[in-house]
Amino acid sequence: MTSLFGKATLYDMLACAIPGYLFLLLFNLCFASSAAIKLDNISVAIAAFTLSYLVGLLIKRGMEVVFDGFLRNSPDRIRRAYNNSKCIFRKRHLPDNENDLLELYYTAYNKSLRCNPNTSIPVLEVQIAFLRSILPIMFLYLVTSNCWLSEIGSRYCPFIFIAIVIFVGCSALIWYLQAKLHQLVWEDEYYSDLANNDFSKAKT
Questions:
Q1: Whose CA is closest to 105, among 15, 14, 171, 183?
Q2: Which of 107, 161, 171, 194 is the most buried (most CB within 10 A)?
C-alpha cells in the first residue's frame, strides 16, 4: 500500500500538480502580476496546491483526448513495437483486427504488471503522462511570451528559441517513450510466459 501511494503521489505531482501550477503562474504573470499573493500562509499554500491539482487534472484529461490515437495506444504502433522487438525470439502472428489486437495488448499489459512488479512500465507511464500534460503549458508560455517576458525583464529571442527546441524535443520524447512502453509490455509478457512454462515443466 505504501508503494502504491508513493507511485500515485509521484504520478499526480508530475502529471497534474506541476502543469497546473505552471498554468496558474502564467495566468498570474499575464493578467494578475500586480496582485501580491503571499504563500507564507499554509491555508493559501494548500488552496494554491488544490487549484493547481484541479487545473492539472483538466489539462491531463484534455491532452488524453487530443492524443487519443496519436502518441498513445495506436494499433499500428503496438504492432510495430512487437515486430521490431529483438528480445522476442519466437514471434506469433498478431490479429489483423484492430480491436482484437488492442484486447491482446491490454491483456499483455495487465499480465506484465502482475507478473513482473519490478518492471519500469509504471515509470514510463508517469513520464509520458507528465510530458503530455506539460506540452500545452509550454505552448501557452510560448504564445504569450511577449506579454509576460517584459514583466520579468528577460530577453525575447533566446527564450523563443529554447522553448521551440524543448517543445519539439518533448514531442519526440513522448513518441520514443510510448514505443518503448509498448515494446516492454510485449517483452515482459513473453518472458513471463516462458518462466511460467519452465516452472510448470519443473513441477511435473
A1: 183
A2: 171
